[in-house]
Amino acid sequence: MAIIFYSERQIALIREASRIVAEAREIVREMAKPGTTTREMDQAVAKHLKKRGGESPFLHYRLPGKEPFPATVCASVNDVVVHGTPDDVPLKEGDLVAIDIGVRKNGYIGDSAWTYPIGKVDEKAQALLKAGEESLYAGINAMKPRGKLVECSRAIQELVEGRGFSVVRDYVGHGVGQSLHEEPQVYNYVQLGQNLPFWRTILKPGMVLAVEPMVNEGTAKVISDDGKWPVRTADGGRSVHFEHTIAILEDRVEILTTLGE
Ligand code: MG
Ligand code: MG
């Protein structure tokens, strides 16, 4: 599989899908309170997507060895790192809930995840949220047209580890546009011997990438039960997830999954 370079017209379509993602993210943010269930969030997002003429690229998504994904959004609470499935358990004070939202419209996809504190969360959770969000922007700010992709990965890892947390290595960011997961992989860490194409990847105009650090308070190791979607931290520590879809333009990097204010 090769990296796809999108035209300005195609990026405009990805921008449109990404805006709907950002709108849905704001709906979820408002709902992130004690007593809400992740199923209610899922249904609210599904309703918004329908209203805006979009659909979820996650619903019925297939990974080898798993049932088709059963919901519109991924909802990952506390020690769930990614791919959590929405349920009817009311969120409670102190929880951390990550909602990952994708939208496909007119054949083009935007992808963004955000993690919300439920009510008042402890100091370590606050620091974890801050490190996750800031690492996402550190990674994006380290990207520039004709720069190296590895600089993004390095910036994310340095920020996270500098705060005493760890970055998940088993799941990574990705190219996105016509499919949910395209080349290249966007690692959240660097390591000698990591695959060479990644080290050599230069950011060129037309590339569209989902940058998505997953940050753990304890070990970076993750586990997943056979056939089940949710991925958890191996030590039961909490995890946060922040993601934007960005485009490399001629003269700058644009965050697409934003309302633009
Ligand atoms: Mg996502
Ligand atoms: Mg993604």
Please explain how this structure is put together.
By secondary structure, the chain is an alpha+beta fold. It has one domain (8-255): Creatinase/methionine aminopeptidase superfamily (Creatine Amidinohydrolase, Alpha-Beta Complex). 29% of the residues lie in helices and 23% in strands. It contains five helices and 14 strands. It has helices at residues 8-31, 38-51, 123-141, 149-162, 196-200; strands spanning 74-77, 80-82, 96-105, 108-117, 166-167, 173-175, 182-186, 208-211, 214-216, 222-224, 231-233, 239-241, 244-248, 253-255. The strands form four sheets. The protein has a five-stranded antiparallel beta sheet with strand order 7-6-8-13-14. It has a three-stranded antiparallel beta sheet with strand order 1-3-4. Strand 3 and strand 4 (108-117) form a beta hairpin. Helix 1 packs antiparallel against helix 2 and helix 3 packs antiparallel against helix 4 (149-162). It is globular. One magnesium ion (MG) binds next to loops.
CATH fold descriptor: Creatine Amidinohydrolase
Secondary structure class reads alpha+beta
Largest sheet: 5 strands, antiparallel
**Can you list the strand order of the major beta sheet?**
7-6-8-13-14
Beta-strand content estimate: 15-25%
Instruction: Determine Rg (CA atoms, Å).
Output: 17 Å
How many structural domains?
A: 1
Question: What is bound: which ligands?
Answer: magnesium ion
CATH architecture: Alpha-Beta Complex
Mean pLDDT: 96
Number of helices: 5
* SSE pattern, N- to C-terminal: HHEEEEHHEEEHEEEEEEE
Number of strands: 14
- Low-confidence spans: none
- Taken from the alpha-carbon principal axes, the silhouette is globular
The CATH homologous superfamily corresponds to Creatinase/methionine aminopeptidase superfamily
The residue fraction in helices comes out at 25-40%
Ends distance: 36 Å
